[in-house]
Amino acid sequence: AADEARRIEGLLQVKAVQDVKKSEEQLEQEVLGQVVQTRLVSMDEVKKNLEVWKPAFEDEVKKLLVDALEPIDEERFRQLLRGDVEVECLPMKAVATLKPDKRKARIVVCGNYAKEKELESEWDNAASGIDAVAIRTALNVMMHEGWTAGTTDVSSAFLKAPRRSNEKRITICEPPGILKTMKLVRPGERW
Q1: For the chain, which terminal residue's Cβ has fewer other Cβ atoms within 10 angstroms, N or C?
Q2: pLDDT digits (tens, 9 = 90+) for 164-185
Q3: For 174, phi and psi rounded to 5 degrees?
Q4: φ and ψ at 185, to 5 degrees?
Q5: Three-state DSSP class for residue 159
Q6: C-alpha angle with apex 176: 171 to 178, nearest 5 degrees?
Q7: CA distances (Å), 108 to each of 64, 121, 159, in order?
Q8: What is the DSSP letter of 96?
Q9: Alpha helices, DSSP H, located in 35-106
Q10: 140: burial class by Cβ within 10 Å (0-12, 13-18, 19+)?
Q11: What's the pTM?
Q12: Of 97, 98, 101, 103, which is closest to residue 33 (Cα–Cα)?
């Protein structure tokens, strides 16, 4: 009876280990399945799961390098600093979000650190959203009128827009540290 109890206890321990491995494999899908709305994810959490987040950041870096940014090395950076054009260095920030169906990464320039806001008096560069009451009101009218509603999103639209640039100044940014940790940029690379 004691041998049988030890055998059963051993089988239960093996089953518990298998359940832990199974739960680790299913955890990602369960977490994604439980997300109802977009959730910001801290960089500390991203750092704990680098390999899980790397594809999202890789996609973002590829988009930026194809559509908007030019990578430069340390030597080119030093040349620009010695040149005739003013060089403004701005920090960048990584933003990670968990959406209902995927992980999303964004790399943004902290434009609030810019010395001079170009054409600030002529342009409002804030990207504001519409008030929720206005959306509900419009949908209510549409429903009563029998109209249909739809939405669209232009992928990377801001990257495709012409830049209102100051020809006497070039902006150089250092990629966020998380990209260096993930080895998605070369040492000393700037954009």
Answers
A1: N
A2: 555 677 889 999 999 999 999 9
A3: -100, 125
A4: -135, 155
A5: helix
A6: 165
A7: 10, 23, 11
A8: E
A9: 43-48, 50-67, 74-82
A10: exposed
A11: 0.63
A12: 101
